[in-house]
Structures are given as structure tokens and as C-alpha cells.
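Bumping my old thread because nobody answered last time. Still need a sequence for this structure:
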């Protein structure tokens, strides 16, 4: 009778044991000393991508460990042979090729006599956790980059503004085609590249307030065509194929220009011996599960394609190209932020960025941006054509960088303006409250200054003169203790060129409206 009760209890215990194994989210398996799997639960079958234990066919557990981790796995096995518990983290690959990171715990199993007869393995899928850890580390990196970019951008863009300003003035007085003109132009273009790099850091670290516009992407590409040709060099052919009846998108034009530039530079670098870059725009309707547009949700899109006929990329490189700081270029030749910036911008505007590439067959990057309703009208943008406009108004110029203050005052006075100079907000308020304050037609002020910010100064001025017009400038728009700037503020990003400033000032004085700022402010669209 007692024996019968024991057998029933034993059977119940075995049933509960089986239920536990069935319900466990972790892979649990028993393997012999040679590594052959003897028992395995459903989670283990899923991890190894098998339908049954018999399907494993005596395959040793080591064969599921990726080659680069095999040595570490063998060390864990040797610890088990010595009768010790073992732990490790490895990347595994299932029978159908799926790779996972697993956290492994293993211990010897002993019989009643204390003899080892097999090993118990518990495997936990850590793939998601590792990806979250990677993203967290990446976020920490970008937080550091953001603080660095924000701190450096203000002073650095002031310096670049002085370089761009004086070189533009020099170019006006040097005959084209002469060696001196080419040398001065080289300085100007180098300063533009430095400004673009600073802009790239600010975009990726989200230290800018996006300023959305309704855009015609074909028009944008054509407006920067000449700049792209200069950027990619003479050994690269550039073919642009803009769709004339393109749908409209909503985005910050300076950010989209940055995407086009980064993709073009990436294509150029893929063809060191020369080649062809093809930039095209099209209207596309993506249906659910459309194999021609993998990973892109259904909907109507405007698509920008940048294709090269370079060497292409292997799969292991293609899997990492959008990671910040990842680059295949030699030290000092790349920041590893170009494609990461592109992806950050595209995602912000609810778009998608894809890449197709094969070794020996080049690469094609496609930017999918949601298409607006057909009634949406694109706004004109870019630097106005023609010579810098003149004026006779009085301008209160507030700038704490002495070199930039002197340069800007000289430029404005040469164009006919009366200039009142101040090195900070408090001095500007003092000037504005003198009798001549009634003659101030426009305030041009830096946003970040000691003692009093440009925004606070403007608020004080508007309290006594509500109609006064203010044009803010800054090396980055997300600045000041008062928080990020409003989208409808009149704003000109630094570094700006003299011609860019003069055109922008006339727009503000004449009431041309917000959102006419020179794109990226650095003369890139000149």
C-alpha cells in the first residue's frame, strides 16, 4: 500500500516537473559529457530552431555556438568536467541561421552515488537586453556629443562667421580666374565644410529646433546641385533626375539638405577611383508587404534615391552603417556620424531610410518621406539671387564676439545702414532707451551672451516698443536658459555670410515673413 502511494506521488512529481519544463521561458536541456543533447524543453527547441530532440540528431551543443565564441565555450565545458558550475555569455546560431545572444548557466548532474553522468544547461535569450544596453550606451555617447556640440558650437560658429565674412569680402575684390581668387575661394569652401560638420553634430545631438516647411524635394535637389558638384570633386560624375510633378513633404529644409550632402559624400567615398552618383526623386505608393520596398509601411511617399557604382558593401558592414561613430575610413578621415545623422533626421520626419548594396555592384540609399495632401503648396527657400540689398534704416547690433561685431558693423555700414553697436544685452537696453531709440528699425542680436541673453533683452525692448523687429542669430537654435526657441521667431543660424545676413535683414524689415532664413546660414547655398 505504501509502495502504491509512493508510485502515485512519484508520477505526480514527474508530471509537475514536466509542466515546469514546458512553461519555462528559458531553454533547459540535459547534455552528455560529449555535448550531445539528451533532453530539451520547448524553449530550448525554439532557441536551437528544431521541432524535436530527435531532429537535433546527436549534434553537440558546441556546434550551435558561433565560431568566434567557441574557445570561451570550451573553457566552460572544461570547468564542468572538473565538477564546477559554469557560466558564460555567447552568441549562438540556430539550425535555420538565426543568431542570438544567450546567457548560459551549467552544472554537473550526479547520481545517488555522487557520480557525474551528465550536465544541466540553462540558456536565457539576452538578445533584446544586449540591444537595449547598446542603445543605452549609444544614448550616453550622444548626450556627451550633445553637450560638447552645444558648448563648442557658439564660439566655433562665431569664428567661422568671421572667416566666411572676410573671405566673401575678399572674393568681391579679387578678379575671378586669378591664383589669389582660387586661394581665397579655397579658404571659403573649407570654412563651409567646417560649418557643415558643426551642423551635422548639432542635428544628430538634437541641439537644434527643427523649422518645418512644405517642400518640393526636386526643387531642393536642384538648388544645391552646384554645391554638390563642388563637394564630390571632379573625378565623380553627378547625374540628377528630379521628378517634375513631385508630391510635397514637410521637413526642415536645412536638415534635408544635410541628408542629401551626407549621402552624396558617402557615395563619393565609396568610389575613390571615380565613378557616377545618381540622385533621383520619385512619387511612390507602398502597399502592405511590398517586396520592392522592404521594411517600409504602406502609404504614399516621396522618395529620394542616391546611388553609386562603387565597390558596394559586405553584409557585416551594411548591418552597422547607421551606428553612430562607426566608420570604415582610416583614422582622421571620417567621423562616423554622416549616415547616423541621415537616419536621425529621416526618422524625425516620420520617414524611412533603406540601403541596397552588393559587393561589386554599388549601393543605393533611399529616403522615404510621407507625401502631403495634393493641396499642399511648396514654399520657396534658399538664398535670394542678385547682389546684397542696401538699406537706410537704423540697426541695433548686439554681439559679444568683438571680431564678429566689427565685421558685421562694417558690412552693414557699407550697405547704407546706421549701426548702433552693443556687446551685451544690458548695453543694448541702455542704447535703446536713449532718445535715438525711436529710430531703431531692427535689432540683430546673438541669443547667447553674458549678463543677459538676447531673448531676455528682446522681451524688455518689446515691453516698451511692442512693434520693434528682432532678428536672432546663434550658433545653435536650442540655446539659452529660457528653453528652445519658438518656430515662428525670426532667426538666422550662424555662421552666416555678409550677403546672407543682408538678404535676411531686408526680409525681416520689409515684413517678408518668418521662415525665410538662408539655409544653414553658412553660404552653402550661395
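Sorry it took so long. Here it is:
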Amino acid at each position: 500500500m505504501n509502495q502504491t502511494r509512493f508510485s502515485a506521488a512519484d508520477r505526480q512529481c514527474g508530471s509537475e516537473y514536466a509542466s515546469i519544463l514546458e512553461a519555462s521561458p528559458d531553454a533547459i536541456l540535459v547534455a552528455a559529457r560529449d555535448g550531445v543533447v539528451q533532453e530539451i524543453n520547448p524553449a530550448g527547441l525554439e532557441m536551437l530552431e528544431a521541432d524535436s530532440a530527435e531532429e537535433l540528431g546527436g549534434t553537440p551543443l558546441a556546434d550551435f555556438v558561433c565560431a568566434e565564441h567557441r574557445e570561451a565555450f570550451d573553457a566552460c565545458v572544461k570547468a564542468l568536467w572538473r565538477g564546477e558550475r559554469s557560466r558564460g555569455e555567447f552568441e549562438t546560431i540556430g539550425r535555420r541561421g538565426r543568431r542570438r545572444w544567450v546567457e548560459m548557466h551549467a552544472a554537473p548532474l550526479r547520481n545517488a552515488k555522487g557520480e557525474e553522468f551528465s550536465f544541466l544547461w540553462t540558456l536565457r535569450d539576452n538578445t533584446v537586453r544586449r540591444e537595449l544596453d547598446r542603445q543605452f550606451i549609444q544614448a550616453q555617447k550622444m548626450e556627451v556629443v550633445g553637450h560638447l556640440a552645444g558648448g563648442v558650437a557658439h564660439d566655433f560658429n562665431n569664428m567661422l562667421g568671421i572667416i566666411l565674412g572676410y573671405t566673401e569680402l575678399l572674393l568681391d575684390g579679387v578678379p575671378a580666374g586669378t591664383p589669389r581668387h582660387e586661394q581665397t575661394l579655397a579658404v571659403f569652401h573649407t570654412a563651409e565644410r567646417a560649418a557643415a560638420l558643426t551642423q551635422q553634430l548639432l542635428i544628430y545631438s538634437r541641439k537644434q529646433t527643427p523649422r518645418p516647411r512644405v517642400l518640393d524635394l526636386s526643387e531642393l535637389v536642384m538648388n544645391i546641385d552646384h554645391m554638390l558638384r563642388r563637394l564630390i570633386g571632379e573625378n565623380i560624375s553627378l547625374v540628377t533626375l528630379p521628378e517634375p510633378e513631385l508630391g510635397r513633404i514637410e521637413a526642415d529644409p536645412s536638415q534635408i539638405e544635410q541628408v542629401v550632402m551626407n549621402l552624396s559624400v558617402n557615395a563619393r567615398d565609396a568610389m575613390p577611383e571615380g565613378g557616377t552618383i545618381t540622385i533621383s526623386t520619385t512619387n511612390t505608393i507602398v502597399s502592405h508587404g511590398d517586396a520592392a520596398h522592404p521594411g517600409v509601411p504602406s502609404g504614399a511617399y516621396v522618395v529620394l534615391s542616391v546611388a553609386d557604382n562603387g565597390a558596394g558593401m559586405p553584409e557585416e558592414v551594411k548591418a552597422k552603417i547607421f551606428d553612430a561613430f562607426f566608420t570604415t575610413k582610416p583614422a582622421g578621415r571620417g567621423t562616423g556620424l554622416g549616415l547616423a545623422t541621415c537616419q536621425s533626421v529621416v526618422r524625425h520626419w516620420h520617414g524611412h531610410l533603406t540601403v541596397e548594396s552588393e559587393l561589386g555592384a554599388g549601393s543605393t540609399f533611399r529616403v522615404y518621406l510621407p507625401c502631403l495632401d495634393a493641396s499642399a503648396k511648396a514654399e520657396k527657400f534658399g538664398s535670394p539671387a542678385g547682389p546684397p540689398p542696401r538699406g537706410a534704416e537704423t540697426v541695433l547690433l548686439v554681439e559679444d564676439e568683438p571680431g564678429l561685431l566689427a565685421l558685421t558693423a562694417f558690412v552693414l555700414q557699407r550697405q547704407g545702414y546706421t549701426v548702433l553697436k552693443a556687446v551685451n544685452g544690458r548695453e543694448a537696453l541702455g542704447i535703446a532707451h536713449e532718445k535715438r531709440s525711436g529710430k531703431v528699425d531692427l535689432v540683430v542680436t546673438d541669443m547667447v551672451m553674458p549678463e543677459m541673453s538676447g531673448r531676455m533683452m528682446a522681451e524688455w525692448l518689446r515691453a516698451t516698443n511692442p512693434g520693434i523687429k528682432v532678428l536672432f542669430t546663434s550658433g545653435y537654435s536650442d540655446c539659452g536658459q529660457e528653453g528652445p526657441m519658438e518656430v515662428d521667431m525670426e532667426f538666422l543660424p550662424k555662421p552666416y555670410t555678409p550677403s546672407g545676413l543682408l538678404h535676411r535683414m531686408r526680409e525681416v524689415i520689409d515684413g517678408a515673413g518668418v521662415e525665410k532664413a538662408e539655409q544653414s546660414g553658412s553660404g552653402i547655398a550661395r
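The longest strand covers residues 99-110. Let me know if any region looks off to you.
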